[in-house]
Amino acid sequence: MAFGQTRAVTDVSFTVEGGEFFSILGPSGCGKTTILRIVAGFLEPTEGTVLIGGRDMKGLGPDQRPTAMIFQSLALFPLMPVWENIAFGLEARGVAKTERRKKANDLLKLVALEGFGDRMPGELSGGQRQRVAIARALAVEPQVLLLDEPLSALDLKLRQHMRAELRALQKRTGVTFIYITHDQSEALAMSDRVAVMSEGVLQQVGAPRELYDNPATPFVARFVGETNAITGRVAAIENGIATVESAFGPLSGRAGDGLSAGAAARLYVRPEALQHKTRGENRLMATIERIDFEGAFALAHGTLEDGSRLTASIASTELGEAPEIGTRASFAFQSANAVVLPDG
Amino acid sequence: MSAADRIMKGLFGVYFAAFFVYLFAPLAIMAAATFNTSRFPTVTPWQGTTLEWFNALAADRGMWDALWTSIMVAFFVVLVVLPIGTAAALVLTSLHARARSFLYAVMVSPLLTPGVVIGISTLVLWRQLGVGGGVFLIVLAQSSFIICYIMLMVAARLQRFDRTQEEAALGLGASKFMVFRRVILPFLKPALFAAGFLAVLQSIENYNTTLFVRGFDTPLTVYIATKVRTGLTPAVNALALIMVAVTIVGAVTYEAVRRRSRTARASKEEEQPG
Q1: Could you tell me which chain B residue has the CA closest to the CA of A43?
Q2: What is the pLDDT of residue B272?
Q3: With an 8 Å Cβ cutoff, are B274 and A124 in contact?
Q4: Do B171 and A68 touch (CB under 8 A)?
Q5: What is the least distance, in Å, from the CA of B269 to any CA of chain A?
Q6: Would the CB atoms of B164 and A75 count as touching at under 8 Å?
């Protein structure tokens, strides 16, 4: 089922499936909030359409759309007790008071806040307020729930906890979530699919694994996860493998779209794809500057011969064989674990 | 502490004392004069202590009629200015910067116009329409400038309103009217109470505008002014003393209630650690 289609900012077009947890990921100011506001009906697009469940939303205000929005500030009504906050949408629909109270209690149970109905929002903690905002949005039984960085105000521990909770809630209710975030780990951890945006342009839409393994553009390669970039010129493309002539000799990786022989290109290889070994193809020599121990793995930071930086990750179990700081070490990677994209 | 410091501190103390004497001495003298048996409101010479002026006040029919007229005027002024001033503030805060400064200038201009001019021009206008002076015109004339205060106070509060609350409410399906009734109005409540209180005070104490539009009705300020000419007795002081007492008791009660509800809320928060 085609659930929604948006064309906004500059030529942005994507389809969100029903019941999907869909994230829009991008740095601040990339236009992701604009898209959300267009879907919600707070902004009218100058061009293009928004379809929800196949229905054109043109001319429909936020009160007439099957959407509910959760704001970054949450925007709870501070002068109403929690249950009235949750039942606000029902009140707007003329539902009787006893019925509203009952529905509010059901929703409080759903978000694990039973018995909090008569508190005021100001008496709740950040995480509790978050859940009230979600319950309030779910009360109107929206087809699409729009979330504008709702976790950004929480501390790290609570944020990670709320991620799991949001994800579970979405699966339980089956409501389509469109989630906006600038935090790539948040988007990767929670979403079925992610749309990456930069400067008002849609870069790529795909499952988290797909974005990580097969970035379609240099922006996605750099923004989603850590990566090393090596510039060069395409020497040959064969069977989907592109060979780049670089300052460190020929290096090869899977060929991305838009590559042509002789054109400037960059090869992207993830830190965990680099292995400390002295043999094999695709070798890079780096002077090790420091090794940051991160727990499960360590990150070795080095400098290549032309002065550019290289980061390789080393599993903690293999730290015994790690190169010494200050020495020159050789790292190799398999062509299947690298991607070559046009330079730009 | 150096000598210069001590002198500065001394001067400051003297200034402070003078400031409060200047502020409260007239009130104190006025209050004291109420209890003097002298036929004029004065404390010198003190001819004897009495409560008779309260009796005289109670017996002064004209004074009570005037007070009643003033209260009635104030009541209708509040009825007129609260909705209109609030509406003006809502319009003002929803406009773009340039239109806003223009409208602001237009709406505040009655505050800069001398009260006498407002009074006379109101009278001239309504005379043309066959309406003479009286309570009706007093209400209109006073409202025309009291509205400005209401608008300013409500607009100040509105500026602190979180607009996303309005969007959230609309997004949940609320009509504009419901947003106003359930979200904006409760938020404005403290400002509306304060503005209403100010409107009552402004209305009751107004003299110069009221004088021209009063017709045959006599509000309190006009009555007292007339009495000054025909012979003022300390009964007026008794009335003033009662008004001051009522104001002070009202303010203290309000503050006490406010503090108690705040502590109640604070202790409730402690029960549920975040």
Answers
A1: B167
A2: 46
A3: yes
A4: yes
A5: 5
A6: yes
B178 and A77: CB-CB below 8 Å? no
User: Which residues, numbered 157 to 196 in chain B, qualify as contacts with chain A under a Cβ-Cβ cut-off of 8 Å?
Assistant: 162, 164-165, 167-175, 178, 182-183, 186-187
Q: Which letter does DSSP use for residue A119 in this model?
A: S
Q: What is the pLDDT of residues A47-87, one digit of tens each?
A: 788 888 888 888 888 888 888 889 888 999 999 999 999 99
Confidence of residue B219 (pLDDT cuts 50, 70, 90): very high
Residues of A with CB under 8 A from a CB of B: 40-42, 61-63, 67-69, 71, 73, 75-77, 79-80, 88-89, 91-93, 119-120, 122-126, 136-137, 139-140
Give the tens place of pLDDT for each residue, A295-335.
888 889 999 888 888 999 988 888 777 788 888 888 999 98
Instruction: Please write the tens of the pLDDT for every residue from B1-24.
Output: 688 899 999 999 999 999 999 999
pLDDT digits (tens, 9 = 90+) for A29-43: 788 888 888 888 888
The interface predicted TM-score (ipTM) is 0.71
Contacts with B165 from chain A: Cβ below 8 Å: 75-77
Per-residue model confidence (pLDDT) at position B237: 86
* All structural domains of chain B: 62-234 (1.10.3720.10)
